[in-house]
Each structure stands twice: as structure tokens, then as C-alpha cells.
Specification:
two-stranded antiparallel sheet, 2 strands, extended, mainly alpha, Arc Repressor Mutant, subunit A, 211 residues
């Protein structure tokens, strides 16, 4: 028996024991049946959405989002850093700043305006640019409406949205240029590796021999 084979049954038994303990807790503390627990496990985990009503003039967008994820969603700072695609130190600093500026808990009011958390992990835009561009393009809100939701000056929102558009346009242009350069390099590579030379090349070669 190999070392791996001797460890696998122990690992399996330990995992099953932990599962039994978890099921017992769910059944006794929350009254869930085995079928209900199984149905919950089979459902895909819902993606976290940020309600737009949590933002305030006291804190920045990143500070507010970090505070919401830490306190309302009960995520660790390490998890938040991973989901936002940012360094742990950056997230830690944002949370500490939010605690200093606005120590009271966030109580989001009901709103139809929400943004998926994964949009912030793309890092194409700043946090404020991401929020503004999403409200502008997805919900088609006016600059004055966005400014009211995010507690910012309408002129700031207008400038932020135009910066976001420029960034995205530049990225699309850069991708197109990169693709053109790649295609040109591929065509050159094919031409150099082709065993058949062009007709004018063969003709020049034959003329060189006769001379």
C-alpha cells in the first residue's frame, strides 16, 4: 500500500465526520431537513452585488465597498482582497480609513440599483469610474441622478464618466493594434517558412546564374 493510499481513507473519514457535524448543527439549530440541506448545497452560490445606497460623501468608493463586504457580507480582508483583485495592504488600509471616517454600520436602503462585485476585479477603471460608467450605461441614469446616488458633484461625475470612456476606448484601440501587429507577424512568418518562393524571386535567381 502506498503512502497516498493509506492517507486517502483517513482524509475521507475526517471530511465525512465534519459533514455529519455540520448537518447536525443545521438540523438542530435551524430545523433543516436532509433534503433541504442537499438542495442548498446544490444551488450555485449567488454573486455578491453592491447596493448603490451604501455610498456617502465621507468615504471613498473603495473604502465603502470594503466596509460593506467586511461588515455586512462578513468576508475576511483576505477574501475581499482576492475578490477585488487588490493587494491585502490596500484593502486593509481602505477598511481602517472607513472605520475612522464613518465608524457606524452601513444600513443600505432598498434600491433597484446594484452592481456586481466582479466588475471591480477587472481593474480597467477606477472604483468611481466603474460605478459611474455602470450607472450611466446599464441603468441609463442622468449625471444628476448618478451624482445624487454617489453623493458627488455632478461636474465630478461628468468628468469621471468621460475619463472612463477614454480609458475603455484606448484599451479597445490598443487591442485592435495588437491584433494587427500579430497578424502581420504571422503573415511574415508564413512567407519566410514557405518552400515556394515568389515568381519574381525565382526569376532573379535564374538571371544571376546565367551571368
Amino acid at each position: 500500500m502506498t503512502k497516498k493510499e493509506s492517507q486517502d481513507p483517513l482524509t475521507k473519514e475526517k471530511a465525512l465526520e465534519q459533514l455529519r457535524e455540520a448537518y447536525t448543527t443545521l438540523r438542530e439549530a435551524h430545523g433543516l431537513s436532509f433534503e433541504e440541506v442537499l438542495n442548498q448545497l446544490q444551488q450555485p452560490k449567488a454573486e455578491i452585488e453592491i447596493p448603490y445606497t451604501i455610498f456617502s460623501p465621507e468615504t471613498s468608493g473603495l473604502e465603502t465597498i470594503t466596509k460593506y463586504l467586511k461588515e455586512n457580507q462578513e468576508l475576511s480582508l483576505k477574501e475581499i482582497a482576492r475578490k477585488l483583485n487588490r493587494k491585502y495592504r490596500t484593502v486593509w488600509g481602505a477598511y481602517m480609513a472607513s472605520q475612522k471616517k464613518k465608524p457606524q454600520p452601513l444600513i443600505p436602503s432598498p434600491t433597484p440599483y446594484r452592481i456586481s462585485l466582479h466588475l471591480f476585479s477587472e481593474r480597467k477603471l477606477s472604483v468611481l469610474e466603474t460605478l459611474t460608467h455602470h450607472l450611466r450605461t446599464h441603468y441609463r441614469l442622468r449625471y444628476s441622478q448618478i451624482a445624487k446616488l454617489l453623493h458627488r458633484d455632478p461636474r465630478t461625475i461628468w468628468t469621471t464618466e468621460h475619463k472612463a470612456q477614454l480609458r475603455l476606448r484606448k484599451e479597445i484601440t490598443g487591442q485592435a493594434d495588437s491584433q494587427q501587429r500579430l497578424n502581420a507577424e504571422l503573415n511574415n512568418a508564413k512567407a519566410l517558412s514557405s518552400p515556394d518562393k515568389p515568381a519574381h524571386t525565382r526569376q532573379a535567381g535564374s538571371e544571376k546564374k546565367t551571368t
